[in-house]
Amino acid sequence: MKKTNCLLLLIFLLTINLIQAQEENKSKFNILAYGGIGYGIVDNDNEPNYNLNSNNGEILLNYNLNQKFGIATGIGLNELTGNGFNSIGNFYHERTMVKIPLIATMSSNISEKIRIVGNFGFYGQTIAKDEYRFLNNTQKDIYEGWNFGAQLGLGFVFNMFDNFNAGINYIGQSDFSKFESNNNVGINDKQKMKNLSSIGIILMIEL
């Protein structure tokens, strides 16, 4: 009888430890997905500045250091469009950016179902597609290379199902280094994107 009780107690303790370990592992990683629309300013050295509209999204893998803080990285895509003017003439500009962020994440419950989330960090990005449509011609890949910047995000998410949260989110970012122009197209300039702000949705999926 004593052996049976000891065996049951041992099984019970192992089960509790296994459940706790599973819960801890479950909460260590989650997926963050952002999507939004907004606008920003193209800041040129030698050409006029102009505004571009933004449609952007990011998908990140977040590692939770503890219940409130984490670190995340992943990939983002930003579609920029708008009108402007430079030394060649008036144009319609379309640009696709690929972004790799590395950010610190924060979250805190403000009620049983609602959580406030934030992030701050840095990113590197490159131009995947760049097209300027002028009246009589189209120029591609005027600017090229990589640049770097900083971003800040804030959002509110609602717990909809087990391990699934959704809500609204704001992201602001600015480049602190510049893309250089390709001199073969007749423009000698450097540019960066500043004060890019977007509002959209955020999804959090616990793994």
TrEMBL record:
The keyword Signal applies. Keywords: Signal. Residues 1-21 form the signal peptide. This is Porin family protein. The lineage of its organism: Bacteria, Pseudomonadati, Bacteroidota, Flavobacteriia, Flavobacteriales.
